[in-house]
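Assess this one:
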Amino acid sequence: MLVINEISESLSKSKKPLIKQIYDKADKMLYVIGLRSGVELAEHLTTAKAKIMVVQGEIDFNTATSSYRLERFDTFEIPSDTKHSVVGVFDAIFLLLLRKSNRNP
């Protein structure tokens, strides 16, 4: 996939998360996220169902009470309504599949 290659090529120079949306249909969105080693996707809250799959490298998925090390081809369901952050351990690329929230703003 061209987008993943673009992020992979840019990763070594990036000091911030690289995020590209590659799908937005019906009730689902798909993102490609790249994190260079040591770069953090700052703490945030996901209110909808979400799942990540690591394509390259390793990441740490962190909540206030737990930390999970995810490696290439690992998948992880993100708990709803849980604040979390993600840190690149080794230059990493992962997919985020997100179901659009049905909640009212």
